[in-house]
Design goal:
Low-confidence stretches: none
Radius of gyration: 19 Å
Number of strands: 0
Mean pLDDT: 89
Number of helices: 10
Order of helices and strands: HHHHHHHHHH
Distance between the termini: 51 Å
Structural class: mainly alpha
Shape: globular
């Protein structure tokens, strides 16, 4: 677990100290800029999503410790974490492509933030509605109570541990992907909103009544979207 906490700390160090230096406002994108954008998203997703995954990582660690104590086969929990992060690295790859496209059609400013109120309103509306959809609630339920997934899909071996972590990562991805996309509205490199979204995800997945909080957040996002729409008329 010390390694996981160190990984989170390093990710936040990058966001606090290095991100703004590595990703300056860009007018014309090169392949290097796109690669660095992917690196930035990958590190951000690590720092933002791993804290809320700590309870399930601890659960996997306890199972492995129990198996180790009984001197039966076990696999390091790091393989589970690797599978979990793999899901978010794939998301980082996709969101990098989306961001590049949004820049090419001038929906995002060189500061990596929405440049159109209509786009801002639409994204907030979609995020708010998604918070109430059955797929969101189902993914959130599995994120909050992963024991059934672990019990059903647990297999020994490194590949199976990665596969299990990837499966859990997919549920978390289905739960939180559009909240991460809100950075297009709030500012991809805005540390204040990165911290707020990290906290929101943590509350949804870990805190009591997190599913209720998710729906309340959805209402708030829809309300802000409607307000921005009328301002823009």
């Amino acid at each position: 677990m010390v390694t996981i906490l160190a990984l989170i700390a390093l990710s936040w160090y990058y966001m606090l100290e290095l991100m703004s230096m590595n990703m300056q406002p860009i007018a014309a994108w090169s392949s290097k800029d796109i690669a660095m954008l992917f690196v930035m998203w990958g590190i951000m997703m690590t720092g933002m999503m791993l804290p809320s995954a700590i309870p399930v990582i601890l659960l996997v660690q306890r199972i492995n410790d129990s198996r180790k104590a009984r001197q039966v086969a076990y696999t390091s929990s790091y393989y589970f974490v690797a599978g979990y992060l793999l899901a978010w690295m794939l998301y980082s790859l996709i969101i990098t492509g989306i961001q590049y496209y949004l820049h090419t059609v001038s929906l995002l400013t060189p500061m990596m933030k929405s440049g159109h109120l209509s786009f801002t309103s639409l994204l907030l509306l979609l995020a708010g509605i998604y918070q109430w959809l059955p797929i969101k609630q189902s993914c959130l339920k599995n994120c909050r109570s992963p024991l059934s997934l672990i019990t059903k899909d647990w297999r020994e071996g490194r590949f199976n541990a990665i596969k299990l972590g990837f499966s859990h990562g997919q549920y978390c991805l289905g739960c939180c992907w559009i909240l991460m996309a809100l950075l297009f509205v709030l500012g991809v490199m805005d540390l204040f909103w990165i911290a707020i979204l990290t906290l929101a995800v943590f509350v949804e997945k870990v805190a009591p009544k997190g599913e209720v909080f998710a729906k309340i957040l959805g209402v708030i996002l829809i309300g802000i979207s409607i307000l921005i729409h009328f301002i823009n008329i």
